[in-house]
## 1
Amino acid sequence: MTGRADTTRGAGWLPWVMWGLGAAFYFYAFFQRVAPSVMVEDLMRDFAAAGAITGMLSALYFYTYAGLQLPVGVLLDGWGPRKLLTSAALVSALGSLLFATADGLWMAYLGRALIGVGAAVTWVGGLTIAAAWFPPQRFAMISGMTMALGMIGAVGGQAPLAAAVDTLGWRTTMTGAAGFALLLGGALWLIVRDRGPYSPPERAADEPARPGILYGVGQALRRPQTWVACLYGPMMAAPILAFAGLWGVPYMMSTYGLPRTDAAMATSAMLLGWGVASPIVGWMSDHFRRRKPFMLMASGGNLVVSLVWLYAGLPLWAVIALFFVTGLFNGGMVLVFAFAREHNRLRHAGATLGFVNMSVMGSGAVFQPLLGWLLDLGWQGGMMDGARVYSPETYGLALAVLPGCWGLALLAALLARETRCRQVDSEDRAV
């Protein structure tokens, strides 16, 4: 262990730069995840699209992101983070450019899908760098820092992006995003190194292959608490991915009469709260050695708070404050990964976490177009500058889905078995 520590110290700033590049890519992925929320009217107008179609256009990111979570782990083992992250950045750049220059809906679909393909690597790839170059006792801290940077990217995809779209137009702004991804890909290729002092030993040529990831997923799905995790995580994430990630900005514009930039700034309070709370809740859960109470508090809190800001007729400042509180409560979602890991064998941890993350991201793919479809059902025929306009009453009916999701998350938390922050399987308890 001493040699490893010395190797890390000898590397000096390099591990932090490599992690920073991986985290910058995760920042970019979150930026792209929420970017359509400030372009809803522009996209509806340019592509003559209804709410459900616009929701699907945004959700394609989530379809490809979620669908690739299991293969990404296998590809990282084979290619290493340097090649895979570089390739992913180039794919993201191509997707952003296609989206920016699309003259029809299908090219825009392809662009958003490719952005999701590139983004799918960011979380796991960045943490793979951290695991190789930093000691295990720093891993949780660095994971929290990575998540916080992702949320900063999401905030950047709200009010600052809205201002850029108002000034430059959405196509020019997305072209600039493509250029950023291209530069990031070059930096990843030049600086990132695959193997560090904490990398696991490479498998010898004559060593039998380990069971495939599908075997690990199958083993995880045999455990009921994995299904609890796959209900809790998506139902906690879906409301924010659908609301703050797409429909929150037009909701604030319609209900409170805000201009786009101000509406984006108000909605970003939810993302900011989520980013602030995630590492804090993770630390508190570890410190008190409890998962279930924090999961109950998070889901129950958001069930109540969402009903208040949706239907209590509060003034704008109170709604924005409750958006931030919603994000704070949603910090409890991060516990689902530790919870799922502790209820499964350690040798299946990668497959388990990949499957849970796939379910979480898949919720965005379902609920963004679902809200658009519900809005279309209540549409009263209003149009402005070629885009559909939905009334506050229509939003109120469609957004009833949000507290419904948090209610299901509360049910999952009630069904959760406490792990006391240790492996439930007796064969893994000593690890």
Note: The longest strand covers residues 383-384.
## 2
Amino acid sequence: MSEVYEAIQDGQGARVAIKLLRPEQSLHAEVVARFLNEARALMALQHPNLVRALEMGVIPDGPPFMVLEWLPTNLQEVLLHAGGRLPAGDCVRVVQQLARVLSHLHGQGLVHRDLKPANVLLARSEPGRMEVRLADLGFARRMTEASASTAVLAVSTAREARLGTWDFMAPEQWVDSKRVDGKADVYALGILWFQMLVGRLPFEARNEQGLMFQHLLEAPPVGLLEPRASPVTRGWVARLLEKNPAERPALEDLLGALASFPELQGP
């Protein structure tokens, strides 16, 4: 729905990213509102692992835009160049940073709903020193029971019944994307962790219906993790991928455990 361009910030010489809504999408009021709400959210929500928005506005007789910090790559590209997998220690570091920023969003009453490698930008991508920035709050939504301290992302549409990226959608998100809470992001984090370790997604199907049934009914193939991850890691990935959101762990519990993971205890 949008395009991103690299640019030089006037007067400062710094590289920035300019995100523009595509012209054909600018004709739809709900899409424009969602784009502007995303920009407001990024400017209001400050966190070291959240991409920074520097400016927002609407081009006269043109589409809305936002100016973001420039980040050189994303996790999808890094995985592609690494053959689909990352070292187990880097996987834990990425998960740790994502858990921190997702916990922050949830504390503000927001659920991201579209965690995937393309939305994980990297300030640094060197092995052992990866720095993560979560991007794209375009599908984010306020959790009805959460704090109303940040008045953003209130747009809802009939088409929102199933929003997200199929490969990373929690079972409850397949049923109704409007009624999910932060546990849907926990599930997506489990999918991402599995993918980084194994080099493939836990569920793969030829069409949307087949993928939906796998997410709803099939147990994830956690046995594929065995050569790549410690028993502790395998156990946590399995917990994140529980079908019942009530059985998935809180991000605070995950963060409390991550610091002592064997993958981080090397020299």
Note: The first helix runs from residue 29 to 44.
## 3
Amino acid sequence: MPEFKEIKVEIDGPVATISFNRPERLNALNETMHVELLDALAELDPGDAVRVIRLKGEGRSFCAGGDMGQIYDKYLEESPPKGANAADLGEAQLWRDRVWLRTLADRHLHLWSYRKPVVAQVHGYCLGAGIELIGSCDLIFSAESARFGHPPSRAHGIPVTIGQWPLKIGSIKAKELLFTGDMIGAAEAERLGMINAAVSDDALDAHVMAMCRKIANVPLDALTTVKHLVNRWDEIGGLRTAVYAGADYNAMYHTTPAFDRFIEIAAKDGVNAAIAWRDAPFKQAES
């Protein structure tokens, strides 16, 4: 197993635990973490000594979203200069964005179709990129205090994996959460079918590990067969096509005035100021 910078891998019998390891950033997902997660999964794939993958986060949260600083830098770098004429614009930014977002979609689908069961253990915040990620896991257990949501949909992006949401929680609830960017608690997430169960914070780690060990009693061939059979039903329902559509529509979203304004504020005053601008109307509506 190679050494990783921003994830940790621990093997305990038939269960391998992959932990996001940026606790000082609440495990905000960046490119390094994405690549290291894929590399770890590749290392753990051969053979059946490891039968179940447990995915968790170090520190106070599972994953509080994408690394906004890295995302902001990417879009600022790729934005055409103000006032540029048509001849100077070069390659279409929309197309480059679509290619990148489809790469993210491929990563999520790889996790979803990975041959070994992947069990997410969620605590703290599971927002933005975090809630996208758990949508590709097979089972999801969370602490009772966990919070779920996709605030970026308010001004600067929709989930690449949006196609999974209606299948899991229904169209009208998916629309509500994305129209508002609101967060929900673990009890509501369990009621909706977004997660398997909410567990007391103190018992979460032991509960998930016990579940992983229970699953690992089943021969790997049987686990793989069952996983891909259930996934096939989701594919028949259009999941894979919908995930790629999520990437395409997200690229379109990134051409909107709201997204441009978010990037403009982030460039001038910082990402935190842009997030404050995004959330201000919702705080006013709640007061």
Note: The radius of gyration is 19 Å.
## 4
Amino acid sequence: MATGRVHGVQRVLAKLDSSLKAGNYYEAHQMYRTLYFRYLAQKKYTDLLDLLFDGAIVLLQHNQQASGADLAILLVAVLSKSGAVLSDEYVLEKLPKLFSLIKPDVPEREVFLMNALQWSCSGSQEHRTGHPELHKNIAQIFWKDGFGCASLLVEIHKMRGYAAEVDLFIAQAVLQYLCLQNMSTAQAAFHCYTSQHPNIKRGPPYILPLLNFIWFLLKAVESGKLNTFKVLCEQYQPSIKRDPSYPDYLNKIGHIFFGIPLPRAQPQGLFGNILQSFFSGLDEESDTESEQGPQPSTSSRQHQRHAQQSSHMETEELD
């Protein structure tokens, strides 16, 4: 009886191999499911996990998205049924690998992710929402996925963002992608976000200047035209000034894609900025006390006026 089952499995494996070599992926998927039920009945969990992982990889790499995702979901089900212990092999490698191969528009992708996270927190009171390393690896995949990132930004803005921030959400992401030298993902995220968001009229041109700036910036980076980049940064100053982080991003983008030297950092650095903020607070307190306490002497007032005039002249020279 056992020998018959072994021969039966071997016949299915041989047929599976023939189907894959012939490119008959629908039939191959059916063979995988047949083997799934047979191995599951025999509790051959290790062999079954290897079979499902390899099968899912093959099908996904041949763009058989629905079939590959189905095997990936079955794999997680086996992990749960077998009581498999959490291991780096699955948390750090295999589950993120499968997730990265399933395209964002495949409905089964979300099912696979939810099931994988649920398995990763099984039996753990500490990680009730899923193992942190699995979350980290999935987040990195989302970050590299322009379409997935854009869809996520659209949903977050609709639920949490202000109407006036609709352009800020995608601008921040695109600039960061460019700073990471990820041009293709930056383009994908921008086009997906602007086409999917219900509050953005199709462009270009766009009604919002910041969106036009980002669109032109992507074109400038793609063409490598330094003068275009410089003109854009000059003409769109009001949009750039909306976020204090934008100039830093653009300095880095100019350096990476156009060879512009990075501006020299101020000697005071971060610690100097903290001290400056601290002393500014002391000055404000001192001003308050001077209003309430004794007035400065005539010579002190003259010295202050002279310092203010000098400061004003220096400011005009800088302007």
Note: The CA atoms of residues 59 and 70 lie 10 Å apart.
